[in-house]
Specification:
The complex is a heterotrimer of chains A (217), B (315) and C (555). With 217 residues, chain A is mostly helical. Chain A has a single domain, classed as Up-down Bundle (Four Helix Bundle (Hemerythrin (Met), subunit A)), CATH 1.20.120. Chain A is built from six helices and two strands. In chain A, strands 1-2 form a two-stranded antiparallel sheet. In chain A, a hairpin with a 3-residue loop joins strand 1 and strand 2. The longest helix of chain A has 36 residues. Chain A is elongated and about 65 Å long. The N terminus of chain A is likely disordered. Chain B folds into two domains: 158 residues, Cupredoxins -  blue copper proteins (Immunoglobulin-like, Sandwich); 99 residues, Cytochrome c-like domain (Cytochrome Bc1 Complex, Chain D, domain 2). In chain B, the strands form three sheets. Chain B has a five-stranded mixed beta sheet with strand order 3-2-1-5-8. Chain B has a five-stranded mixed beta sheet with strand order 4-10-9-6-7. In chain B, strands 11-12 form a two-stranded antiparallel sheet. Chain C has one domain: Cytochrome c oxidase-like, subunit I domain (Cytochrome C Oxidase, Chain A), CATH 1.20.210.10. Chain C has 16 helices and three strands. In chain C, strands 1-2-3 form a three-stranded antiparallel beta sheet, with no helix packed on it. In chain C, helix 3 runs parallel beside helix 5, helix 5 packs antiparallel against helix 7 and helix 9 crosses helix 14. The model of chain C has no long low-confidence stretch (mean pLDDT 94). The chains are: A mainly alpha (217), B alpha+beta (315), C mainly alpha (555). Chains in contact: A-B, A-C, B-C. At the B-C interface, helix 1, helix 2, strand 7 and strand 9 of B face helix 4, helix 6, helix 9, helix 11 and helix 12 of C.
């Protein structure tokens, strides 16, 4: 294998690799605070209109494909597990396990996107694409379209974040790990990607009830 | 009383007098603060300039006495200003019943006023002196803002709802009226005048306008023409709330909330009936957005207010 | 006779063999792909200066138009001018001005670090800024948006026929640049301080940038969502803010001001940090109440999130929420007042020198105080009902954003110029420019307070003839201000070629950045400094001072 820990040096502004790794993680956490507020603003607006127009939202939400959302929930939670296990493996120097677990994470993420894509297709058939192909259901007022607007924006943004996450894991696999830059001595980049991945999972934790569990009590 | 202050604007309403006093107090306080800061700065800069022989010994190490001191003083002063201003704001913004109610419709780029007797004017508002005038305002398009500097009153006119404003002019004259919320191309010229006249002059002006139907009467015609009476008439077979004596009462809505039946409530019911269904009634009132404009709604509001208050209709 | 600056300030060392950050590499590629925070600071400098002139050109046209009631520009053109002036000045000049230039350059140096935590993200921030700049220039060149920088709905979503979408997109992208810069600073200040540099030994400029970065990180994402929803509404016609579809126009205002009020504090906090560096240095004594100043900075940053609806007192919000917001606004004014008192008392028993930077800093304090007392008037509910939406508000925020922040920017420029460029500038003309700025500024904006109270609405291309004298006075003042702002361009530019070489510490300041040569080497410090004491250890009694790394200097 090419490269070894001896070759890996911290960047000039860091005193040690440890400091570099620690700071990278702090950076990701701070970035996630920022992301939380970004999604938070969207979810806040969603809840505001949900309160104003609960009747319309209830009717509109009936067309949300519950099985797709739930399967995706399971896929994403499992992928968080495989990610954490991969980081564990990295810490213990179990390189093959780490690689396979990361591959599983990517696969689960891609499956999520696949199910989501299929769900988008079903949504199009159901005519719940605002402006493009929308038909209000019986009893649904004009605010129902707002529910679907939030659906497309929120799940679209989430999908973009997930795709970036998949890209980051692939980058780890095909670049950093292949060049031997992830070792038990220094695996902070993987931890940073792991933190991000958990965030993407957590966002789905909040989106899932907002979209799929509205009015189903 | 204020004419001796240079560059002071007209003071022509009871509202303006109150605001004047508060503003002058704040000007005084600001002058005091500026004099203190500038004064200290100038004194220190001269006394402690590089070449001077003043003593620099015994520099204060503990600073917190001063800091707590001036923080407390600052906070106390600010609280006085806050309470004074907030109390006055509540007075300014809780529109009383009013001797005369005038309806204002703002649209790009003009002010349309409608007196209860049906008299209309554009970019001008004639009012009698020493009477409490209550304005009910609607916008047909974007957010505007009704501002009379001489009265020191202002309120945004927001589309989709009705706003109220009141004033009591106490000086006869003509005063500047402006829009102070940017509303597009001709915002800068969306201006007019408020003409304050004596009681008899105002009464004479009203009769000279050549209108025969009051706002409430025009509203009644709309009420029938758009089918409102089909459900809300007492002889109707449809189960709909009665509107007689409705204005000013508390209404219990389907979702459990309670609202006062004011102008805004009536406006909301007409344009968004599903969200404001009264408890115990089926949600079948049609949505009139698109069929009625804001001017129409104001007439309907005037009519509904007059139901159960026969003296309102004659105005 | 008093000592001239030339005699007082030590001469620069002869040209040394050690390359500095400017001379180390000289290709364009080495600049465009640099990871050096100092070079990135200069890159930002170029960008924001460019936008300052674009926004300034718009302001010039506006004041020329307003010199007479008949005006100069078509109403449609004027409306686009003031909108683009606001958008460009706020997001493309003021918000990045001090943080992305002096913050980038000096934060690592002041804390004893060799660079920021994430140099590549720093460079990316500059590229994202320029991308947003291209979008806003596109919007401008194509005709501009015409809604005011506040994009109030439904004007901006339904009625406006300008380039609203492009302008909103530019702001959206610009937000990411802010976020990247803020992230870098927060992490750097938390984790990269040199040994001995505890939080309570940090220079106040670092605290100011820290406070700003926290606000940038927490407020800007809301702006991102706002502009996104605005763009979506305008593009798709959905009904979020459209009353005819059940939307609420006021929701836009709440969301917008939730970001934009903290944004105005983003624009002032770094200036406060700069002034806290300059005044102790030129008064030759420690700042009065260091701990109080740090508490004040952080209080302002936190409280700034609780006052947004004071922009909406006349918009139709409930009377009770208006009362709460007025109270909170008075609360946030208290720490600002404390800072003014502390700066003023820092002059007491000092050994004051009136160099250009000090003149800008003192001007900052006075203009900020005047802007601040008018802020009290705006916080007072009943008075705001009268002056909201008039030139009174315009004057108030220009006193703070231009009078204070731009003065602080120029103060920082003069204070740190020798360190950044290795050259001294001619002190005489610099002092003249500072005083001219102050005069021109007051002449421009004080009449606007009067105009506002008389009732002149803002965002107006014309006005009733009886207000012409005030408007003419304001425009005349603006011409003086313009000259005062152009002068530094001339003499600072001259100094790059002909200025005296600067020593490491021409002003005798105590910060770590002054322990390096002027200009500094690529990685700032040969060895990481060890910090022995807090900032501003100036002794006015004998003029001596001690640098933060413990080196004592005689008076």
């Amino acid at each position: 294998m090419r490269g070894s820990a001896a070759v890996l040096r911290p960047e000039p502004q860091y005193a040690s690799l440890d400091q570099q790794g620690d700071v990278a993680q702090v950076g990701m956490w701070v970035f996630l605070v920022n992301e939380t507020i970004f999604f938070g603003a969207l979810i806040f607006t969603y809840f505001l209109y949900r309160t104003f127009y609960s009747h319309d939202f209830d009717i509109a939400a009936k067309d949300a494909v519950l099985w797709c959302g739930s399967v995706n929930f399971a896929l994403l939670v499992t992928s968080s597990l495989t990610m954490v296990l991969a980081i564990n493996a990295a810490a213990q120097g179990r390189r093959r396990a780490m690689i396979w677990l990361l591959v599983a994470t990517v696969a689960l993420g891609c499956l999520f996107l696949g199910v989501k894509g299929f769900e988008y297709y079903l949504d199009y058939q159901d005519k719940v694409v605002p402006v493009v192909n929308y038909q209000a259901k019986p009893g649904e007022g004009p605010a129902g379209e707002l529910f679907w607007f939030f659906y497309w924006v929120a799940t679209g943004l989430h999908a973009i974040h997930l795709t970036i996450g998949i890209g980051l894991v692939l980058y780890m696999l095909l670049w950093r790990i292949r060049r031997g830059e992830i070792t038990p001595a220094y695996f902070a980049p993987l931890e940073v990607v792991g933190i991000y991945w958990s965030f993407v999972d957590t966002v789905w934790l909040f989106l899932y009830p907002c979209i799929y569990l509205v009015g189903r009590s | 009383m204020y004419h001796w202050i240079p560059f002071w604007p007209d003071t022509a309403a009871t509202n303006a007098i109150a605001v004047n006093n508060l503003f002058i107090a704040e000007l005084g306080l600001s002058a005091l603060i500026m004099v203190t800061v500038v004064g200290m700065m100038v004194v220190f800069c001269i006394r402690y300039r590089r070449g001077s022989s003043a003593s620099r010994a015994n520099l204060t190490e503990t600073t917190w006495h001063f800091e707590v001191g001036w923080t407390t003083a600052t906070l106390a002063t600010f609280l006085v200003l806050f309470v004074w201003g907030a109390g006055m704001y509540v007075w300014l913004y809780q529109a009383p019943r009013g001797d005369i109610e005038i309806y204002v419709v703002a649209k790009r780029w003009m002010w349309k006023m409608e007196h209860p007797g049906g008299q209309r004017e554009i970019d001008a508002l004639h009012v009698p002196v020493d009477k409490t005038i209550r304005l009910v305002m609607a916008s047909e398009d974007v957010i505007h803002s009704f501002f009379v500097p001489a009265f020191r009153v202002k309120h945004d006119v927001v589309p989709g709802t009705l706003e109220t404003l009141w004033f009591k002019a106490d000086k006869i004259g003509t005063y500047f009226l402006a829009c102070t919320q940017f509303c597009g191309l001709q915002h800068a010229t969306m201006q007019g005048k408020v003409v304050v006249m004596s009681g008899p002059d105002y009464a004479r002006w009203l009769t000279q306008q050549g209108v025969h139907e009051s706002l409430a009467q025009q509203g009644e015609e709309l009420f029938r023409a758009h089918g409102c009476s089909g459900c809300h008439d007492k002889n109707s077979t449809v189960h709909a709330p009665s509107l007689v004596g409705l204005y000013g009462t508390m209404v219990h809505l389907q979702d459990g909330t309670v609202r006062v039946a004011d102008e805004t409530y009536i406006h909301d019911c007409i344009f968004n009936p599903r969200s404001f269904t009264v408890a115990g009634y089926p949600p079948i009132m049609p949505d009139f957005s698109g069929q009625l404009n804001e001017g129409d709604v104001l007439k309907l509001v005037a009519y509904i207010k007059s139901l159960g208050h026969p003296e309102e209709r004659a105005k | 006779m008093s000592v001239t600056t030339a005699e007082r300030v030590p001469q620069g060392d002869p040209v040394s063999a050690v390359p500095n950050y400017l001379t180390a590499e000289n290709t364009i590629v080495s600049w465009l792909f640099t990871k050096d925070h100092k070079r990135i600071a200069l890159l930002f400098f170029a960008s924001i200066t460019f936008f300052f002139f674009v926004g300034g050109f718009a302001a010039t046209m506006m004041r020329l138009n307003l010199a007479t009631p008949e005006g100069l520009l078509q109403p449609a053109v004027y409306n686009r001018m003031f909108t683009m002036h606001g958008i460009i000045m706020v997001w493309f000049f003021l918000i990045p001005s001090i943080p992305a230039t002096f913050g980038n350059f000096f934060i690592p140096m002041m804390i004893g670090a060799r660079d920021l935590a994430f140099p590549r993200i720093n460079l990316a921030s500059w590229y994202v800024f320029n991308l947003s700049g291209l979008v806003v220039l596109y919007a401008l060149v194509m005709g501009g948006a015409n809604t005011g920088w506040t994009f109030y709905t439904p004007l901006s979503t339904i009625y406006a026929n300008g380039y609203v979408f492009a302008a909103a997109l530019a702001v959206f992208i610009n937000g990411f640049s802010s976020i990247m810069t803020g992230l870098n600073f927060v992490v750097t200040i938390h984790r990269m301080r040199a040994p001995g540099m505890t939080w309570m030994r940090l220079p106040l400029f670092v605290w100011g940038i820290y406070a700003v970065s926290v606000v940038m990180l927490t407020a800007t994402p809301v702006l991102a969502m706002d502009t996104f929803l605005l763009g979506a509404e305008r593009f798709l016609g959905l009904g979020l803010f459209d009353p005819t579809h059940g939307g609420d126009p006021l929701l836009w205002q709440h969301m917008f001001w939730f970001y934009s009020h903290p944004a105005v504090y983003i624009m002032i906090l770094p200036g406060m940090g700069v002034v806290s560096e300059i005044i102790p240095c030129y008064a030759r004594r420690p700042v009065f109440g260091y701990a109080g100043m740090t508490i004040a900075l952080m209080s302002i940053a936190i409280l700034s999130f609780f006052v947004w609806a004071h922009h909406m007192f006349v918009a139709g919000i409930s009377i009770y929420s208006a009362i709460v917001f007025s109270l909170m606004t008075f609360f946030v004014a208290v720490p600002s007042a404390i800072k003014v008192f502390n700066w003023t008392v820092t002059l007491h028993k000092g050994r004051i020198v009136f160099d250009a930077a000090m003149l800008y800093a003192l001007g900052f304090v006075l203009l900020f105080t005047l802007g601040g007392v008018t802020g009290l008037m705006l916080a007072t509910l009943a008075v705001d009902v009268d002056v909201h939406g008039t030139y009174f508000v315009v004057a108030h925020f220009h006193y703070i954003m231009v009078g204070a922040t731009v003065s602080a920017f120029f103060g920082a420029l003069h204070y740190w110029w020798p360190k950044m460029t290795g050259r001294m500038f001619p002190e005489g003309i610099a002092r003249f420019a500072a005083i001219l700025t102050y005069i021109g500024f007051n002449l421009t904006f004080f009449p606007q307070f009067v105009l506002g109270y008389l009732g002149m609405p803002r965002r107006s291309y014309t006005y009733p003839a009886q207000w012409q004298s005030w408007n003419l006075l304001s425009s005349a003042g603006a011409s003086i201000l313009a000259i005062a702002y152009l002068l530094p361009l001339c003499y600072l530019g001259w100094s790059l070629f002909k200025g005296r070489k600067a020593a490491a510490n021409p002003w005798g300041a105590t910060g770590l950045e002054w322990t390096t040569p002027s200009p500094p080497p690529q990685h700032n410090f040969k060895r990481t400094p060890v910090v022995e004491l807090g900032p501003y250890s100036y002794n006015p009694e004998d003029g001596s001072y001690i640098s933060q790394d413990g080196t004592a200097h005689a008076g």
